[in-house]
Amino acid sequence: MDPTQAKARRGAVVLPLLGLALVAVFWASLNLGSVASSAGEIWRILWGQAAPGSLEFIVNNIRLPRSLAALGGGAMLAVSGLLLQVYFRNPIVGPFVLGISSGATLMVSAVMLTTLTVGLVGVMPYLTPVAAFVGALGAMSLVLAIASRVKRGVTLLIAGIMIGYLSSAVTSLLIAFAEAERLKGFNLWQLGSFSGYTWHELAVMMSVGSALLVLVYGLSKQLNAFLLGENYAATMGVHVRRFRMALIFTACGLSSLVTATAGPVAFVGLAVPHMARLAMGTSDNKLLIPATALIGALVCGFCDIVARMIFAPVEAPLSAITSFFGAPVVIALLLKGRGRQ
Question: Is 67-335 in CATH node 1.10.3470.10?
Fold first, then answer.
């Protein structure tokens, strides 16, 4: 069988299975919680056939936006990690490793812990995502500037880790001098959670994020060419400089959209692209991008359920759950790759 046909056939099987698994996780997320509910009640609420009550309010205003945010946020973080791995042609980079999440956290802490936003109450819902994007882009720009001057593969990782430490150091200073009232909200945000999502926040994240994901899929052919080197991509008609800028802006935008409202969520951007490559058996981004988005949504949705239920009624930090899930996956994949060498 032709390799292209084999990849297409595998994608035709794997992608629908991932879609069905995603529906199952979404349904489980709506049904599980501290308030008991049955599948029939949830179904009637979703179709607007249930009488108003406490369960109807909980499902429509707490569980439903949270579930959609977890699935959408997981897809965005995973695709952001995939873009960074393609850009640097390095399988162990991601928003956390390169300091992008730390940069976003620094700028969000400046908004939440200082008096810089006094008098800007009307724009506060939009100021946090913008601050997260600026922080993510600033950290990424510093990494690129350093890596471009020293042509060594390990330089990228060291630069990202150091920028992450510097951002964390400044954030720690802001925390030390912050007011107790502001500090409480920031600490809750820093733990990482999709709880408390409003429909307005969800609409902003999903509308912008969906547009960026569509843009990424439209760039799949250029991404495949870029994997083979910048010179090859240029011969295929790719404007390399513009493409690099688009890639960085898109990766930072996807990561900062989630970080701004849900807080830093670890390991999704690093581990999920590896899982997608293993599931699809290819590096073709036309298949890898939708698979990465689906698996990212699955992982984040599942981890969000675990965070809610494992110590109920106390909620576990989402980043702790994703780290427990993601770290063994990455280690196993690295060991498997080592065994093949």
Answer: yes
Give residue limits of the domains in the chain: 67-335
User: In this structure, is the dihedral angle defined by the CA atoms of residues 174, 96, 26 and 254, taken in order, positive or negative?
Assistant: positive
Q: What is the C-alpha to C-alpha distance for residues 213 and 83, in angstroms, rounded to an integer?
A: 11
User: Residue 318: CB partners within 8 Å, gap ≥ 6?
Assistant: 191, 192, 193, 194, 262, 263, 265, 303, 304, 307
Under 8 Å between Cβ of 321 and 303: yes
Q: Give CA–CA dist 20/17, Å, rounded.
A: 5
What b/e string do you get for 212-240 counting C-beta neighbours within 10 Å, with b at 16 or more?
bbeebeebbebbbbbbeeeeebeeeebee
56 Cβ contact partners less than 8 Å away, ≥ 6 residues apart:
45, 50
How many angstroms from the chain centroid is the CA of residue 199?
19
Q: What are the per-10-residue average pLDDT scores of the chain (341 residues)?
A: 71 90 94 81 83 83 92 95 85 77 86 68 64 83 75 68 88 86 79 84 90 92 86 84 83 85 85 89 89 95 92 84 83 62 41
Give the whole-angstrom CA distance, residue 258 versus residue 293: 14
Contact 118, 182 (CB under 8 A): no
